[in-house]
Each structure stands twice: as structure tokens, then as C-alpha cells.
Design a protein that fits this description.
The chain is an alpha+beta fold. Helices cover 49% and strands 20% of the residues. A hairpin with a 5-residue loop joins strand 6 and strand 7.
Length: 284
């Protein structure tokens, strides 16, 4: 065997071994992070417990309306933090959390109002939600996290301003349409939409976008866990997610959640024919 051919084969073996070692190290790192996250979540839960107990006691001894409003805000924040801790523990244990009927329109309105109040004014916020959305079974806390995570990613991709669009509509996919979406399945769905006019993703990033630790943000600005976790959450909901993007052309996420009840077994009207309730927000 010629030395050059032997050398080439040895190089390929070495590269393959290096990739295997990298994958093993990544898996070990993920396992260690999971153990650390579980310990931190338990500690946070213990810290939140006295707050949950103290708030009702404080409310009974406070008469000032402003002070009561502050306590209400604190109680809401502690409740959301508790739900997040519970979600971390469920995720670490391999449990997806309890599913229930979720008012998607109300959830999107809450997210829209939140980003309108907190995102830079250089970002225009738009909301288009179909008036007669079908129902979905979901974990409300997880769905809130998914949407907020995508909105924050969109904000970070529009450093010089742009447009963030939130929406929801009914959709029926036949086998041909479902085959065009990675992980897609024929059926009736409520589709949640998060679009931005930001930097978008390159083909190189798209090839590994759903892997843990992949991020387009600067060092220290993102863990790269967001989109990987989002896909896992949506998969637990028996749904799937579609991303359309191009470098410099923004990103468009479509989250398909199975509709419950008895939606019509036929294709829905085109977007132009559907009736929407746009949410008008003030940024004054």
C-alpha cells in the first residue's frame, strides 16, 4: 500500500476518533449540567417556599392600595419562578408536565403586551391571532417559555430595530404538505408564529441549529440551549416546529400543536380569508 494512501486512511481514522471523543465529552457535559440544574432548582424551590407563605400573611396586614399592588406583583413573579423551577425538575426527571386546555389567544396577548413594554422602541410589535382558534392541550408554563424565548432571540437579532410579528391560526396538513416539514405529520393543528426581520441564520448555522450549545450570540450572551429545549418541549406536546430563514432576511418560526376537539377534516381557508383579531399595543 502506498504511503500516501496509508497516511490518508490513518488521518480519516484519527478524525473519526476525535469526533467520537468530542461527542462523548459533550454528552458528559450535558449530564453534569443536568445534575447541576437539578441541585440549583431544589435550592431555589427551598428559597421560594417562605416567600409563597409570607405574601398572604403580609397582605392581611397591609391596607395601602399601592402596597397591595406590589404584593400582587410579587406573588405573580414568585408563582412564575416556582413554575419555572418545577419545569426544570420535570425536564431533568424526564417528565413533561401536566397538559391542559390552554387559551392560546390570551397567552399571545400577554406575551405581546410584555414585549411591547420591555423591548426597545426601535422594534415594532405586531400581533395577528385568528378569532376562532381551535383548542390545544399544553403545559401553559412551558408554552409561555417557548414563546418568550423565541421573542428574546428575535429581539437580540434586531439590534438596530425591526419588526416582531406574533400570530396564531388554524391549519390542516395533508400528507403531502406534512412531508415538506421536518418531523411533520398530517392532521389538524393550531400554528403559533414568531417572525422577525433580524439577521437570520446562515446555512452553516442552520445545519446544527437544534443542537445543544449552538448559538449565534457573542460569548457570555447565550447558552445555546434555547432552541434545543424548545424543540424538546414541542415534541412532548406531540407537535413539531418549522424554521424558515436566510442570512440577513430574518427568521420565521412555526410551531404546530395538535388541535383537540373536532376541528373540520378539511383544509382551512387561506390566510387572506381568515378572520383575525389584531392586538393594538401602545408604545407611547
Amino acid at each position: 500500500m502506498p504511503d500516501s494512501e496509508y497516511s490518508s486512511k490513518e488521518k480519516r481514522k484519527l478524525k473519526g476518533a476525535e469526533r467520537t471523543d468530542e461527542q462523548a465529552l459533550r454528552m458528559e457535559r450535558l449530564e453534569n449540567m443536568g445534575l447541576l440544574a437539578t441541585r440549583v432548582a431544589h435550592d431555589l424551590n427551598n428559597m421560594l417556599a417562605p416567600m409563597r407563605m409570607a405574601i398572604p400573611m403580609l397582605r392581611s396586614s397591609v391596607a395601602d392600595a399601592n402596597a397591595r399592588n406590589l404584593l400582587d406583583s410579587l406573588e405573580s413573579t414568585v408563582g412564575r419562578a416556582t413554575a419555572l423551577v418545577r419545569q426544570i425538575l420535570e425536564y431533568a426527571d424526564g417528565v413533561g408536565g401536566q397538559l391542559q386546555l390552554v387559551p392560546v389567544q390570551q397567552l399571545l396577548e400577554e406575551i405581546t403586551l410584555f414585549v411591547t413594554e420591555t423591548f426597545p422602541r426601535s422594534i415594532r410589535i405586531e400581533n395577528r391571532v385568528r378569532a376562532d382558534l381551535w383548542q390545544v392541550n399544553a403545559n401553559l408554563s412551558q408554552l409561555h417559555q417557548v414563546l418568550l424565548n423565541l421573542c428574546v432571540n428575535a429581539r437580540d437579532a434586531m439590534q438596530h430595530g425591526g419588526t416582531l410579528r406574533l400570530g396564531a391560526e388554524n391549519c390542516v396538513l395533508d400528507a403531502m404538505a406534512a412531508a415538506k416539514i421536518d418531523g411533520g405529520r398530517a392532521g389538524s393543528y393550531v400554528v403559533l408564529q414568531v417572525d422577525d426581520t433580524g439577521t437570520g441564520f446562515s446555512p452553516l448555522v442552520m445545519a446544527k441549529i437544534w443542537q445543544p450549545f449552538v448559538t449565534t450570540k457573542k460569548a457570555g450572551k447565550g447558552s445555546g440551549l434555547g432552541l434545543s429545549t424548545i424543540r424538546d418541549i414541542i415534541a412532548h406536546h406531540k407537535g413539531f416546529i418549522q424554521l424558515q430563514t436566510a442570512l440577513g432576511k430574518g427568521a420565521s418560526f412555526r410551531i404546530y400543536l395538535p388541535a383537540v376537539g373536532n376541528p373540520p377534516p378539511r383544509p382551512v381557508q387561506s390566510t387572506a380569508q381568515q378572520t383575525y383579531h389584531p392586538l393594538v399595543t401602545s408604545r407611547g
